[in-house]
Design brief:
There is one protein chain. Helix content is 34%, strand content 9%. By secondary structure, it is an alpha+beta fold.
Length: 64
């Protein structure tokens, strides 16, 4: 399955911020967070808000 450059960039940026990412078919699901809005807008990524998601939103911690 081909992956777009935009999807790869979003996945990298979301992970770099220690947020979780989920896949829903061909959509990437990221937390509804002001930082995500800023990042996606800065990257020029078209996005939309959808209803509540049930994916695991726990992030990764370095102190464990």
């Amino acid at each position: 399955m081909p992956v777009s450059q935009g999807a790869l960039r979003v996945a990298f940026e979301v992970g770099n911020r220690h947020f979780t990412l989920a896949l829903d078919g061909e959509r990437l699901l990221v937390p509804d967070d002001p930082g995500m809005d800023i990042m996606l807008t800065r990257l020029g990524i078209r996005y939309e808000r959808v209803g509540p998601c049930s994916y695991d939103r726990r992030g990764h911690r370095h102190d464990r």
